[in-house]
């Protein structure tokens, strides 16, 4: 039996993904599957992990995936038109296969089947425990302070007044944050920061008090 761990807040999409994967692996492997939520315990023995990513989240540390005890397939679900850059990903999701949430079923099936076959034919040792060598992205202390204030509803002018800094300085930090995580709008930035606040805040990104 294949163990599949899923992390996606959209219950309708998650249910559809379960049906999709159950049929796919029954045909591809002739094996039944068991679905579980993605937790530390379930990630250890998962053969397949399905994890959704808001824009920018694919470039940060993924602590939950460090507990994996064996190689397996990671399916990353993302929104938007731009596929994340594989050569800039953290080690823990280095071999992820990304699927757009709006991807046609036939295309998604081809991608998952090919990735699964590659995983079986060329199993790789887990690189995700080598955290010191990982190039995941993080925020500077100043960017962290600004991120907290943005999430509390302050605009650039208000943040500049609170921190007693020039408005241009705050704007520059905001642009750097967006560029660092490949974000293209204020909406994407706030979704990204809010996701970090609610789910899985990684060490070295939000080290001080909670947002």
From TrEMBL:
**Which Gene3D superfamilies does the record associate with it?**
Winged helix-like DNA-binding domain superfamily/Winged helix DNA-binding domain
What processes in GO biological process is this protein linked to?
Answer: regulation of DNA-templated transcription
Write down the superkingdom of origin. Bacteria
**Is Metal-binding among the key words of this record?**
no
Origin organism of this chain? Buttiauxella brennerae ATCC 51605
Q: Which Pfam families match?
A: GerE
| HTH luxR-type domain mapped to chain residues | 132-197
Q: Which SMART domains match?
A: HTH_LUXR
Q: Does the keyword Transferase apply?
A: no
Q: Which UniProt keywords apply?
A: DNA-binding
List the protein's name: HTH luxR-type domain-containing protein
Enumerate the InterPro entries for this protein. Answer: Sig_transdc_resp-reg_C-effctor (IPR016032), Tscrpt_reg_LuxR_C (IPR000792), WH-like_DNA-bd_sf (IPR036388)
